[in-house]
Design a protein that fits this description.
single chain, about 130 residues, 2 helices, DUF6497 family protein, DUF6497
Length: about 130
């Protein structure tokens, strides 16, 4: 419990939605940061989720395929999430990157939204894709 308390006190402050500005990713789409979820454990233990808005993945009118979005999520893990992981306290077992064509409340059903999720483990400052 003490280790968790230290981690909570030492973790980076959350950014406000849009604080990262527009993030160009390999597919050419522009995504914006939505939020970071740190309080919901994942199946592998401590999980940190970075959520982004990516309108170009929309089912209707979208221009980015699921395969291209997967590359974008790997890029976001490596180039955005890694530098924002806590450097003290418990080490996250997993990083989840999610893209949604619109803001969606975490954990709430949103059948009208297009959403993609990818999980990564982190080792030696590198994100490694893990199949869900």
């Amino acid at each position: 419990m003490a280790a968790m308390a230290v981690w909570v006190l030492m973790r980076p402050a959350p950014e406000a939605p849009g604080a990262a500005g527009a993030l160009p990713v390999p597919s050419g789409q522009v995504v914006t940061y939505l939020d970071t979820i740190q309080a919901a454990p994942g199946p592998e233990g401590l999980t940190i989720r970075f959520r982004f808005i990516a309108p170009a993945i929309a089912r209707d009118g979208g221009t980015v395929t699921a395969e291209a979005a997967q590359e974008d999520m790997e890029w976001l893990c490596q180039n955005y999430a890694l530098s924002r992981l806590p450097t003290t306290g418990p080490v996250p077992e997993q990083v989840v990157i999610s893209l949604s064509d619109r803001p969606v409340e975490f954990g709430a059903p949103a059948p009208e939204a297009t959403q993609f999720f990818e999980a990564f483990s982190v080792e030696d400052a590198t994100c490694y894709w893990e199949a869900f």
